[in-house]
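Hi R.,

Here's the chain you asked about this morning:
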Amino acid sequence: MLISLELFVMLVLANGAPVVAAGLLNGLWSAPVDGGRSWKDGRPILGKSKTWRGVVSGALACGLFSLVTGLGFIFGVVFGVIGLVGDMLSSFIKRRLGLASSARAVGLDQIPEALLPMLLAMWWLPVSGWVVIGVVVLFTLSNIVASPLLYRLGIRRHPH
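And the predicted structure, written out as tokens:
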């Protein structure tokens, strides 16, 4: 049960640390991962909200938490990076569908960024497929519920 909670916290850190870092670091390291380039369809590859600052802060937050909990720094960094890759995959798909970066896409906004690192956890750690499913469902539901609350508190720029 504890490992499930630790992995859930790591998913939250991978996705929350970039928001905190953006607030603390202002414009520093705000270069978009896609370099501001567009895809063949003329739309941004990912969009300006996917930054190197976000990748570094999310990966480091997971790595440090993972180190403290005994899962290992390397596992945490890789877990965080894979979670952020899942988030970028979602953004890529949303751009191809013509959705804005702030557009809500329930499931697409949560599942890839939770499922991909949880598959790593299942391979790397002694966690079952049921733990993977449980943590992904918990993350998805908590994200759907918490995002509007964080928006009302002024922590998020968009309600989802």
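The chain has one domain: 2-152.

Let me know if you need anything else.
M.
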